[in-house]
Please model this.
Amino acid sequence: MRRVMILVIPLALVAAACGDDDATTTTTIAPTTTAAAAGPAMSPAEVIFEDQSSDGTTIVVASVTLPSPGFIAVHGNADGSPGPVIGHSDLLLSGTYTDVTITLDQPLQATDLVFPMAHIDVDGDGIYEFFPPDETTDGPARTATGDVAVVGGEVTVEGEGSGSGALITIAGFAFSGASTASVGEQVTVRNDDAVPHTWTATDGPFDSGTIGSGGEFGFTFDGPGEYSYFCKIHPSMTGTITVEG
Model:
């Protein structure tokens, strides 16, 4: 009788061999994250400004210290507080600068307060962008104690009263410019906003009616006194002018 030998190959070996043929390697790459870049330092900053005389077209800031690149913005007078921006410096790098001359976009027509304020170039584009309420990108810098780095001072306009008259400007939904005038001197109100306004006495002798964008209104006072005024279209806009005899 023949004997038949049956070769039995362990299935485990076959399975292992097949597994080696089909094996693939999968590499998992962990997602990467990038932390948001921190913004520029906003403090500590410092502005030093002294009372001075000028022809009304420029002012000189005695000293400014910036923690990051930025600008000096010159705000006009709005009842003793910073009003609309009437000029600004070129871009300044971080550090301390002295005797910085700034040409005003809106020349002063009469002796008045101005408020130089340190601003930081927040978006780093080197362009001054702070004309509220429409553009407020480049924010004010802060002092070491957290206050806005701004200081006020009086600019005496040389040769005022020679017939140029006093000028009140309307810009950024605020009145700025002349806060004093003389009897017999014409006061000119100019609207630099893109919307109409009025210059109306709260209880007094003048009412400009509607002054369109780019328009002007002139009025000559014939008596001394302190006159408060507002805009009929935007009543939150107010101001005061003192007329001296």
About this structure: Residues 11-22 form the longest helix (12 residues). The domain at 46-157 is CATH 2.60.40 (Immunoglobulin-like). The CA atoms of residues 51 and 153 lie 5 Å apart.
